[in-house]
């Protein structure tokens, strides 16, 4: 194997860089805070809580209540499937990576959501952000070779505990580095949700634009990489796919 191919195999794409994941999980925290505080008490980031609520309503025979929580679940499932289909469609165009386009779509959608009046049905925002969270979760999978989720933190908490114990036991720097990276993912997520919740009390529906600013920065950072120093790597799949 040549030196060039070796470097290419080990290089991480811009969409796999750790700082991109920190920014995206901050936006993920904003999504969760926004739908729960401002748009009907729904969790858009992951579906465990929504399915628990669905099951509770089913057990009580409250079919309308169950349907209320079934809608975000179907939106999330649809977002996963749509992200797979669109990733195949955008690749032959050789303009940008699907990862880049997705972040651009997120920025546009969140701008629009900020203009939707409070009188509009909450399901508009719920379904939109469920779609986006699902597509983001399915698209951004590994940060520099480490499995990462950018929309929820359950696995990050597990990894924090596991790697901290391993570090205390073996004193290996890589274990502490893994602990630190997962801890920062949790911190950025909590920060996004906290900032959004505070802004909801001040600016209401416009609080979602907190995520928009982050997404615009990430979009142009990834687009620059796609059109310049990674233009010959558009065919490469990010690790984890």
UniProtKB/TrEMBL annotation:
<keyword id="KW-1133">Transmembrane helix</keyword>
<keyword id="KW-0472">Membrane</keyword>
<protein>
    <submittedName>
        <fullName>DUF1275 domain-containing protein</fullName>
    </submittedName>
</protein>
<dbReference type="Pfam" id="PF06912">
    <property type="entry name" value="DUF1275"/>
</dbReference>
<dbReference type="InterPro" id="IPR010699">
    <property type="entry name" value="DUF1275"/>
</dbReference>
<feature type="transmembrane region" description="Helical">
    <location>
        <begin position="182"/>
        <end position="200"/>
    </location>
</feature>
<keyword id="KW-0812">Transmembrane</keyword>
<feature type="transmembrane region" description="Helical">
    <location>
        <begin position="20"/>
        <end position="37"/>
    </location>
</feature>
<feature type="transmembrane region" description="Helical">
    <location>
        <begin position="206"/>
        <end position="224"/>
    </location>
</feature>
<feature type="transmembrane region" description="Helical">
    <location>
        <begin position="66"/>
        <end position="90"/>
    </location>
</feature>
């Amino acid at each position: 194997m040549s030196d060039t191919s070796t470097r290419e195999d080990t290089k991480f794409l811009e969409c796999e860089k750790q700082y991109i994941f920190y920014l995206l999980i901050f936006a993920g925290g904003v999504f969760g805070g926004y739908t729960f505080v401002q748009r009907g008490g729904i969790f858009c980031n992951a579906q465990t809580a929504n399915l628990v609520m669905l099951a509770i309503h089913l057990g009580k025979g409250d079919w309308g209540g169950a349907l209320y929580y079934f809608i975000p679940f179907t939106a999330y499932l649809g977002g996963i499937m749509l992200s797979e289909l669109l990733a195949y469609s955008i690749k032959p165009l050789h303009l940008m990576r699907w990862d880049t386009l997705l972040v651009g779509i997120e920025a546009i959608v969140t701008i629009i959501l900020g203009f939707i009046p409070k009188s509009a049905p909450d399901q508009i925002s719920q379904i939109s952000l469920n779609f986006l969270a699902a597509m983001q979760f399915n698209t951004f999978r590994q940060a520099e070779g480490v499995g990462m989720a950018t929309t929820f933190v359950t696995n990050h908490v597990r990894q924090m505990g596991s790697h901290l114990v391993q570090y205390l036991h073996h004193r290996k720097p890589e274990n502490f580095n893994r602990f630190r990276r997962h801890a920062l993912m949790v911190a950025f997520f909590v920060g996004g949700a906290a900032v959004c919740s505070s802004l909801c009390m001040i600016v209401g529906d416009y609080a979602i634009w907190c995520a928009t600013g982050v997404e615009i920065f990430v979009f142009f950072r990834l687009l620059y990489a796609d059109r310049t120093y990674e233009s010959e790597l558009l065919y490469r799949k990010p690790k984890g796919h």
